[in-house]
Amino acid sequence: MATRLQSTTRWLRWLTPGLEIKRWLLLLMFAELVVVLGFAYFLKAFYETATLPSQFYYITLQFLPHWLRAVIFGALGVGLLLFSYVKLTQSVLGPFLPGNSTSSVVDVIHAFRLKGRGPRIVAIGGGTGLSALLRGLKTYTSNLSAIVTVADDGGSSGRLRDEYRILPPGDFRQCLVALADAEPLMKQLFDHRFKEGSLDGHSFGNLFIMAMADVTGNFEHALRESGKVLAVKGTIVPSTLQDVTLVASINGRSVEGESKIPQQNAPISHVFLKPDGAQVNPEAAQAILNAELVVIGPGSLYTSILPNLLVEGMVEAIKASPALKVLVCNLASQKGETDGYGVDDYLRVIREHVGSNMFDFVLVNSNHSHTPTGGQSQVIFKSEDAAHHPEVRFIPADVVNVRVPSHHDPDKLARTIMRKVWQA
Q1: Averaged pLDDT of the chain
Q2: Does some domain include residue 110?
Q3: E strand segments, 46-171
Q4: Fewest CB within 10 A of the end CB: N or C in the chain?
Q5: This model's pTM is above 0.90
Q6: What are the angstrom distances between the C-alpha of 171 and each of 96, 199, 210, 264, 385?
Q7: How many domains are there within the chain?
């Protein structure tokens, strides 16, 4: 019974508005009706002149009224037509469905059309927080733009950046994989990290992006071409095209390098970019101005979020955009950066660096039953935080990943943003 109901529901999805299927199906049926009408005239002339065996009286249901015969043959014909069209479409398009998808063609088309009509969303950040956000949002819209920090100087990205003077590819690789619609093996390949020899510590995806940049002569072009390989839905752009270094003021001294800042294990009073005057990437600014929803975070406050906002022209573009602006607050503190921080501290630090509040919503976690790993403390939202920021609407929601309590759950996070912000 359940299987029959599921099959019926799947058939009815062909009638969903916006698939751009029904119009052509109706045209095909009309064309066939014209052909059948011509054939009917031929049969009429044939019946009037030919002598047929008596069995034709029963085969053609001549013992029934004309209207009932028309209903029976019409229903049978329409049913066979629809069935044949669906099976033909599955046979022709089946090999081209992404990955090892077991979804029916109508489900794939419905999802494609639905996401194509989704809101224009810009996500700003870096690291695992941004990739988790993108992984969830891509199920709701294909009109996604990720604006990624270029201040990363640690690990494989830092080594490639120093040796080849390219923008650090690590965060871009994570975003590519998060937005990919390619085979699982291709995703694993991009995340594969070598463990010995001269390539020790490098990921294949980083090397691929670097090689693509060398071939195309342009880092942005390399990202677009890499996106084609992974069938990425959306765009991924650097916040600035200039080579910048993140500098932090800690205990009255300057510490240079995004990877070195958390290692100081001391309160950070201020961060800035070196050299001064790094300009926002025009493509990033245009995406923000055209957006309907701008999401900042989750991510490291000082090393993922602020490096984007400190690029000249970024904050101005965000403020000028008609989009709704959302800050996704971290679930847990980060050692060496935000030890003991609450939600109010995140907003205070951002305001100190950019000059004013620019958010309409702040999304905070409400599920504190899972303790973060690695000795991190939870970022708590207090009732007085709302009183300190009356211009902001706070949205408490369960967005924690129960398996890794210091990280957001992509599905929970995206669902909350779409239902409680976009559809609010």
Answers
A1: 87
A2: no
A3: 121-125, 144-148
A4: N
A5: no
A6: 30, 19, 13, 23, 31
A7: 2
